[in-house]
Design brief:
The protein is of the alpha+beta class. The chain has 3 domains: about 40 residues, no CATH class; about 55 residues, Roll (SH3 type barrels); about 110 residues, 2-Layer Sandwich (GMP Synthetase, Chain A, domain 3), CATH 3.30.300. It contains 7 helices and 8 strands; from the N terminus they run αααββββαββαββαα. The strands form 2 sheets. Strands 4-3-2-1-5 form a 5-stranded antiparallel sheet. Strand 2 and strand 3 form a beta hairpin.
Length: about 260
Amino acid sequence: MLLLLVLIIILIYSFIEIWGMDSLLQKTGFVGIVAAMMVLTSSTWMPDLFYGLVLLNSSMADEGDTIAIPGEDRIYIINRLTPFYTLLLDVDNNHRVLMRNSQMVQNKVENLSKRASVEGLRRKMEFKLGYPKDNLDGDGHSRLFSRVDKAVLGAFERVCADPNVQVNSKIPFEWSLVEAGDNALRFIMYYHLNALPDTKLTNKIRAHVRATNNAIVRFVFEEASVEGLDLSTPSLLKIDAGNLAMMSSVDHSIIDK
């Protein structure tokens, strides 16, 4: 902040000398105009400057950190932090994104490079399990969930055997049934992602995060198929009121004949 203030003072003094403002009235008048402009436009640049100084003088975010914005299925790398804006690298689309510092803080950005523990980032995946065709009793439900356990365990073992998958091999996958919906059972599986590398190369983050995610989905699907579990949901035929009336009239005409 002190350095920025010094630069502003030097800039104002340079303009005064360049334009030959010798009298005290001219100098104070010019300084007053600059001050008035800064006050009138402070609502535009002051929040970005304030949050930029917070980011630069804290460990909330550093250059090279990988971040995610809630509500967006995107991850970014912080390429540069400045007093007014943050330059990001879009990991998926491999291009640059310019974001105001006030947006960085107000959007509740998730810093994936700052772990809460040495276990790694705890992430989740959602799967839908189709209902069995036959009605199950209590033992049947237990057998169904046992097959899910085997599929999840099999996927975890295959993940650990793959050196390209960045998952903490010391913590097994966890799964929980969270909803018994109209068409399928919905369960969530948790896994721990290894620490992200401190890099500005988007291909390394893609290989670490996206490739790991894709591999886990593939292994879970394959192990579910081995256990006879259906991860698909039935396709429902939607009929609007117009088509329903048309079908009804056709049925009546057939009956009359």
